[in-house]
Amino acid sequence: MAKNKFIYMALAAATISFSSCEKDFLEKTPTEKLTPQQTSTESLIKGMYAQMYQTGTGGTTGHDDFGQKGYDIYMDLLSGDMALEGVNYGWYENLANLTAPVNFTANPNYTPWRYYYALIFSANSIIDKFEGVAPTAKSDQYAFAQAKATRANAYFYLLNLYSPELYGTGSEKVIPLLTSTSQVNQPKATAKEIFDLITSDLTEAVELLNGFSRSTKGEINQAVAKGMLAYAYAARGTQEDWQKVADLTNQVITSGAYPLTTYSQAAGVLSIEKPSGSEGYWEWDYKVSNSDAGFNNIETASWMWGADIQVSTGLDLVSWWGQMDLFTYSYTWAGDPKGIDADLYDAIRPNDVRKTQFYAEADYLPLGKFFAPDLIIGGQRTITTDYIYMRVDELYLLNAEANAHLGQEAKAIASLKALLAQRFKNAADYAYINTLSGKQLLDEIYLQTRIELWGEGKSYLAMKRNKATVTRGANHLFFEGEPYKYNADELTLDIPQAEIINNPNLNK
Which residues form the SusD-like N-terminal domain (predicted)? Predict the structure, then answer.
C-alpha cells in the first residue's frame, strides 16, 4: 500500500507488541475472579458483563484480546467473508493464513478458550450462590437467569469454534463441561451433553426472565435469551428444532419491541472529497448526511443487546473499533485493513443500500457500515462508540431459515422480504425472492445472512449450521480462490496446549 511510507511509525507510541508469540497458560480458577462468598450478586453480574468488552480477558496482552468482539473478528476471518488485506502489525495474520487453527500452541486457539471458560466461571459463580436452584425473589431470579443464559451462550460459541461438525451425531466428545466453580480438570463431554446444557439453561432463562425490565441493553432480557435459544436449536437443526426456531423468533418479531434496522440506519450516506495529491482513501475527507447510521449506538431501536461504551470504560487502540474502523486511531487506518470478501461484495445487488456500506476502491472497507461519528481518519482515540451483540434483523433471517427448512416457504419469503424492504427502495428489486423455493431459497437466505450481518461475527455460525463451502475472493492475502468446507481443520480451532498440559483428565 502506498501509505506504508508513513504508517510504519504511526502507532509507535502505542507500544504495539507481538504477543501472538506468547505462551500463556489457562488458570484453573482465574485469580481476578472473586469467589461467590466474597462479593455480591450485583457485583458478579456487572463483572460478568464487563468481561465481554474488557481487554486481556483471553489471558494475553495481545491487541486482538478484547472480549466477545475480538472473537467476532476471529470468526469473520475464518468464515472467509472478511478479508485481511494488510499485515504490517501481524494481528490476525496466522488466522487469515489458516496456520493458527492447526497449531495448538498458537494463541488464537488459547484466547477464546480462556475467555469463554472464564465467562463460564463467572456465570457459575452466580449460579453457585443459589446452589444451582432457581431462587424465589424476583431480583435473584433475574440474576440467576442472566447467568444461565451467559453460561449457555459461552458453551454455544465453544461448540461452534472447537467442534468441526458442531453437533454432529451428538456422541462425539468435544470440550469439557463445567457447571460449578468447584469443578476443575473435567474430561471432554459429548456434543449432546453440551447441547443439552445450552438448551436447558436457556429454556430456564427464558422462563425466569419473564417480566424483567432491564436498566440497560447491556443486560440479557427475555428476548435476547429467546434469540440465543433460537441460535442453539438452529445449530442442531432437526425438524423439531427448526419449529422451535420459528416459534422463538416469531415471538420476538411479533412483540413489536424491536423494529428492523431502517434503510437509513443500514448505511451512511458518505460524501468523499479526494484532495489533489492524495495517495488513497486514508487521505480522503469524509462527511455523512444521515447521523443515524454507523452501527455505533446502542440506542438504535433494532439493537437487542450490546455494550454501552463510555470514556470510563477505558477502551482505546485495543478494541473492536481499534481493529476495524478507519476513523479510529486504529490498525485499519495504520495499515492492516479488513474488508468484505470481493466475491461477496459482487453478490450484493446494485440497488441494495448495503452495497454502499463498502467501497471497492478503498480495499472493500466497511466505510459506510461502521464508523466513528466524527469521520476523522484515525481520530477516535478513546472509544465511545458502542458494541453490538444482537439485533432483531438476525431473528428475521433465522425465522426465514427455519420456515424454509420446515417447508413453510411463504412464511420464509415473508420474513426475508420484510428485511429486504428496508434495504431496497423499490420492491421490484427484490421481487425475485417470490420465485425461489427449496435449496434456492435456503441458499438465498444464507447469502442474505452473510450480507446483512457482515462484520458482526455471525457469518461463521451460519457457515457451520449450513454446512457450507466457502471460497476466498481476490482481495484475500492468502489462498485466493481456495475453497474450504465448514468442517475443515483450518476453519476449526484446536484445544489449546495449555488445556492439554494442565488437564490430565481431558481425554478420559
Answer: 24-230
